[in-house]
Amino acid sequence: MQMFFRKLVLAALLAAIPAGAQAHWRKASSEHFVIYADDSERDLQQFGETLERYHAAMAYLTKSDQAAPSPSNRVTIYVVGSERDVQKLAGGDSKYVGGFYIPRAGGSRAFVQKIRSMGRDPDFSVIILLHEYAHHFLMSSSRFALPRWMNEGAAEFYASADFPRDGSVNIGKPAQHRGPELYRAREVSIEELFDPELYEKKRKKGYDAFYGRSWLLYHYLTFNEERRGQFAAYLTALLDGKAPLEAARAGFGDLDQLEDELDDYLGSSKMMQISLPAEWLKIRPVTVSELSEGMDEMIEVQMRSQRGVNREQALAIVEDARRIAAKYPDDPGVLAELAEAEYDAGNPDAAIAAADRAIALDPTLTNPYVQKGYALFAEASEAGADADWAAALKPWTALNQLENDHPLPLIYFYRIAQMRGGEVPELARGALEWASQLAPFDLGLTFQTALMQAGEGKIALAQANLLSVASNPHGGGLAEKARQLHEALAGFEEGTPVGPADLPTLVSPPEGDGPES
């Protein structure tokens, strides 16, 4: 896929395997994750089980009953090498980038350096992965837009975990990796934590203690018996429309007193944590398999493609993909990756041909349908004939039959109906809303759903979706556009359809922020 994506810069996580390295890759599959690694079966099995126990621990503590994702909507993790190569793969101004995570419907990807050290003292790169998965989990559990400090504080709280050999999980350990920040970086006041505008106003270039103070406040409020119930009062005040500082005072009382307590808490010699025994954390089996000889060679191409490419990168990748596919013409996985590379390089006919060959060899693979769907959609967008749109619908229909809750066919049912002109059928509109529920972590999809709902006159639903985008600390330009649209919709009554003509400067997300990103 050719993508411009919301990049979440982690602090120590990703690498690309060096060109020409001799690898022996394996794949671990579990209920919530797919993991690719050039590592031993034992290490990969342990890593998969640890991540599943982490998920189970969060589900237990949050009392979440979210359904397991469809296979293609799991988080795929690539365990791929050194920090230097990570920065090269990340591109741009990436000298401090150790890795990144890309949340998107039917294709969330994380890139990590290594999978060892998953016991009492996880590697820092693993802590960052746990932090980002906490965001992914919490967004999947609730559509309520958490305040930024609470969003980041919760992610730090859960990510400060360890995994004893007996299968238990300890959550809420002191965030030792935030120690230097808490003691040396510019302090962020309690009012700045609660009020995003005040924080941005006082924020200066350089490192501050926002993440550390957010963790400290979340940890303190979680374990302090005297303040039990204040979280709920604070969130209720926000839901009632109170301003950030007003809601904070309604929930927590005197903020100066809370800040003094927080400073004392930072100096505590001991802090509580939550220990969950293994018998409370039921997980499904993790299966590990070796990649085929062709996919072992093609895995670098797959990673580079799924990281997201520009035109120049796509043209280089497709040459590598063609070379490997020529050696393994009967490997359906290889052909699926060739289809993706051809589509990225702007060759829809070649992408369709490769996808058709992959499907003929293995009709259970999902990526060939996706790439064929993209290619036919692109061709129909150029031609515009009804027969072309009918053809573009076929691979998405086949994929929907293969994997009923894969979000991409649902998205393209709507997009194709929209592009064909006329009134979009209710079934297609419902498909987009369901896709958004299946992948609430995809901000572009949430934005697109809000636009559709505004056009239907569902002002409250549209605003709720826009608020979840606008409040996301990593939302970038899309978050700002969502904030503007949220404010604009406040001027319309419920039941009033609001379309592009009503909001001409606000109705399109920034290029590359849509669900296909």
CATH architecture of the largest domain: 3-Layer(aba) Sandwich
| Overall mean pLDDT | 87
Determine the number of helices (DSSP H or I, runs of at least 4 residues).
Answer: 22
Strand tally, please? Answer: 9
Query: First CA to last CA: what distance?
Result: 8 Å
Instruction: Write out the strand line-up for the largest beta sheet, numbering strands in chain order.
Output: 1-5-6-4-3-2-9
Instruction: Return the CATH class of the largest domain.
Output: Alpha Beta
The Rg value, from CA coordinates, equals 23 Å
Helix content: 40-55%
Extract low-pLDDT stretches.
1-21, 509-517
CATH topology term of the largest domain = Glutaredoxin
- Structural class, from helix and strand content? alpha+beta
Mass-distribution shape: globular
Describe the main β-sheet briefly. 7 strands, mixed
Strand content: 5-15%
Overall tally of structural domains: 3
Task: Offer a concise description of the structure.
The longest helix has 22 residues, at 41-62.
Account of the protein in words:
With 517 residues, the chain is of the alpha+beta class. It has 3 domains: 1-151 and 279-290, Glutaredoxin (3-Layer(aba) Sandwich); 174-272, no CATH class; 329-489, Tetratricopeptide repeat domain (Serine Threonine Protein Phosphatase 5, Tetratricopeptide repeat), CATH 1.25.40. Helices cover 54% and strands 6% of the residues. The chain has helices spanning 41-62, 83-90, 124-141, 148-159, 179-184, 190-194, 196-202, 210-223, 230-239, 244-252, 255-266, 293-307, 311-327, 332-344, 348-361, 367-383, 386-402, 407-419, 426-438, 443-455, 459-470, 476-489, and strands spanning 8-9, 26-29, 33-37, 75-79, 100-102, 109-112, 169-171, 274-276, 287-290. The strands form 2 sheets. A 7-stranded mixed sheet has the order 1-5-6-4-3-2-9, sandwiched between helices. Strands 7-8 form a two-stranded antiparallel ribbon. The longest helix is centred in the first third of the chain and has 22 residues, at 41-62. The termini are close together.
